[in-house]
């Protein structure tokens, strides 16, 4: 059974392991699965560091068509405790020399983000073959698809990857340069996790891994409210060349401004969210409990959200991750109306499995939210009330929720004898299923053809346990069919258009056919 993934990182971990192709791990290598437990940090990082979508796994998991996302690690990322400690303790996984090189980006005579993007592209060349003669096929149109090969379409995550200068003025020219050289990209994700010169990004940085604070660098915090002129020019260059715009990582205001620009200048361009999830609320009514001035950066607002309960028997949209990095109900409708695609992420935190109680907004953008609570000074301990450094995704509470559900289920005779891991897999699958049904309920029945998987696997995420790698896609297909039908039976049939006769077709569309048909419309002719 063939599978499609709109957003995966099959070469990122090879990229991080060295400074040039000759001293990097081969992209066919599976050695990274053997991770030494060098410290408590590495123990907490094991699920992030393990391969999830390398070329061996993609082949064995029958993911015969996927979008290979190419990315230049940002300065803020490589300076974080996370990268520095892993590089110090297991340098064969994250190269200290590479981190030092990236820290010099933007300085005269040093390598640029654009140079590092080229390094990533070079790891997946057109003539790549595997140790047993496996063939890799990098597509420039869907007509080149080969069912006997591993087929990839390229994309770029983060417009900073196109910078040859600190101000980002070269981004549009460098994108055009790559296109003129014969590269083709399905989409460009304008933002990533750090501040940039293109647009305001949505806060999305994980601030703790287990007991270790990742970073307190302000570069991870949003700045301004929307698209800059350099960003608008880059959008125009991309869309004129047939490179679609991915709204993942864009802030609330940036997305709204992009929709307006697209509607005015490029009304036929479909909107993509390559690896996201539903926030479960309106962009005009996010469940904000209070807003506090950041303890050191007075132009930032720490937003505290109301959270769903941990021990409820049923998952609702109030249990989703309502951070602005996810799709508000209006975003879902906008994407469906455009004939676009939503790639559903398999990141636990993005799906809402881990509760995320606080988010950072720029004050300028926060005050654009209608009826938002007034910004107040810190009322408790500033490190808790007016910062996010303690935000650890409430991992312990999440594990307690898994345990509580396992115990509750174990009390039922039909559930007896199932392992704790299986209970957790089922709980995580519930979040995936509820995400799908919420999107359909909000976007209408036409949403079914606009959904696919955009896993973000091997993108340094902690995946849901029902899909820890692409090798699990086959099991996910079977389990999702059962879960969706059971959930749909509890709602109005007109909300979901799910029946025993069409649920398998719906899931097959999600995992393969929708992506293929979208590419037939938008990637079938050379750009």
What this model shows, in words?
The structure is a single chain. With 527 residues, the protein is α/β, with parallel strands linked by helices. The protein contains 19 helices and 15 strands. The strands form 4 sheets. Strands 1, 2, 3, 4, 5 and 8 form a 6-stranded parallel sheet that branches. Helix 8 packs parallel to helix 9. It is globular and about 55 Å long. Residues 392-398 and 409-414 have low confidence and may be disordered.
Topology, element by element:
Elements: E1 4-8, H1 12-16, H2 40-49, H3 55-60, E2 65-70, H4 75-78, H5 81-89, H6 96-103, H7 113-122, E3 136-138, E4 150-157, H8 171-180, E5 185-189, E6 208-209, E7 212-213, H9 229-240, E8 244-246, H10 252-265, E9 272-276, E10 288-293, E11 300-305, H11 329-337, E12 341-344, H12 348-351, E13 358-362, H13 363-366, E14 375-376, H14 382-385, H15 395-410, H16 420-443, E15 451-453, H17 473-488, H18 493-496, H19 503-522
Parallel strand pairs: 1-2, 2-4, 3-4, 4-5, 5-8, 9-12, 10-14, 12-15
Antiparallel strand pairs: 6-7, 10-11, 11-13
Helix pairs in contact: 8-9, 15-16, 16-17, 17-19
Pfam family, one: Peptidase_M19
Protein name: Membrane dipeptidase
Organism: Hymenobacter cavernae
How much β-strand is present in the residues? 5-15%
Total individual domains: 1
Major beta sheet, specifics?
Answer: 6 strands, parallel
Measure the end-to-end span: 30 Å
The percentage helix is 25-40%
Radius of gyration: 22 Å
- What's the CATH H-level superfamily name? Metal-dependent hydrolases
What's the average pLDDT? 88
CATH architecture: Alpha-Beta Barrel
Shape: globular
């Amino acid at each position: 059974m063939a599978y499609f993934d709109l957003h995966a990182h099959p070469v990122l971990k090879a990229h991080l392991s060295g400074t040039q192709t000759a001293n990097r791990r081969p992209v066919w290598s599976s050695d990274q699965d053997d991770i030494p437990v060098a410290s408590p940090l590495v123990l907490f990082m094991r699920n992030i560091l393990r391969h999830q979508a390398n070329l061996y796994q993609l082949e064995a998991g029958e993911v015969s068509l996927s979008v290979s996302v190419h990315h230049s690690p940002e300065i803020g990322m490589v300076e974080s405790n996370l990268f520095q400690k892993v590089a110090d303790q297991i340098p064969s996984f994250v190269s200290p020399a590479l981190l030092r090189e990236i820290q010099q980006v933007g300085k005269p005579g040093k390598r640029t983000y654009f140079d590092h993007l080229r390094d990533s592209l070079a790891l997946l060349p057109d003539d790549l073959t595997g140790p047993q003669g496996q063939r890799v096929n990098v597509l420039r149109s869907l007509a080149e698809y080969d069912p006997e090969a591993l087929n990839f379409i390229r994309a770029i995550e983060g417009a900073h990857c196109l910078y040859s200068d600190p101000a980002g003025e070269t981004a549009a020219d460098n994108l055009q340069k790559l296109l003129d050289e014969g590269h083709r990209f399905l989409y460009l994700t304008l933002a990533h996790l750090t501040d940039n010169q293109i647009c305001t990004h949505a806060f999305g940085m994980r601030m703790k891994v287990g007991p270790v604070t990742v970073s307190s660098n302000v570069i991870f915090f949003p700045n301004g409210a929307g698209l800059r002129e350099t960003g608008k020019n880059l959008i125009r260059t991309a869309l004129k060349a047939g490179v679609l715009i991915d709204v993942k990582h864009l802030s609330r205001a940036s997305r709204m401004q992009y929709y307006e620009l697209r509607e005015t200048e490029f009304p036929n361009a479909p909107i993509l969210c390559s690896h996201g999830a539903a926030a479960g609320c309106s962009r005009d009514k996010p469940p904000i409990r209070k807003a506090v001035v950041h303890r050191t950066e007075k132009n930032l607002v720490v937003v505290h959200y109301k959270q769903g309960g941990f021990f409820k028997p049923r998952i609702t949209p109030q249990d989703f991750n309502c951070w602005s990095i996810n799709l508000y109900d209006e975003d879902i409708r906008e994407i469906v109306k455009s004939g676009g695609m939503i790639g559903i992420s398999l990141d636990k935190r993005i799906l809402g499995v881990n509760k995320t109680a606080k988010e950072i907004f720029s004050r300028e953008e926060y005050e654009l939210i209608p009826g938002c609570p007034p910004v107040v000074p810190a009322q408790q301990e500033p490190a808790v009330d007016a910062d996010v450094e303690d935000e650890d995704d409430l991992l312990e509470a999440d594990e307690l929720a898994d345990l509580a559900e396992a115990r509750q289920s174990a009390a039922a005779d039909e559930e007896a004898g199932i392992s704790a891991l299986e209970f957790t897999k089922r709980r995580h699958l519930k979040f995936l299923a509820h995400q799908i049904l919420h999107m359909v309920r909000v976007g209408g029945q036409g949403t079914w053809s606009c959904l696919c998987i955009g896993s973000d696997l091997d993108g340094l995420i902690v995946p849901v346990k029902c899909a820890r790698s692409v090798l699990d896609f086959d099991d996910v297909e079977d389990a999702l069919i059962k879960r969706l039908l059971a959930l749909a039976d509890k709602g109005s049939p007109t909300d979901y258009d799910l029946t025993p006769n069409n649920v398998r077709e719906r899931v097959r569309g999600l995992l393969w056919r929708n992506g293929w048909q979208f590419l037939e419309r938008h990637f079938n002719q050379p750009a």
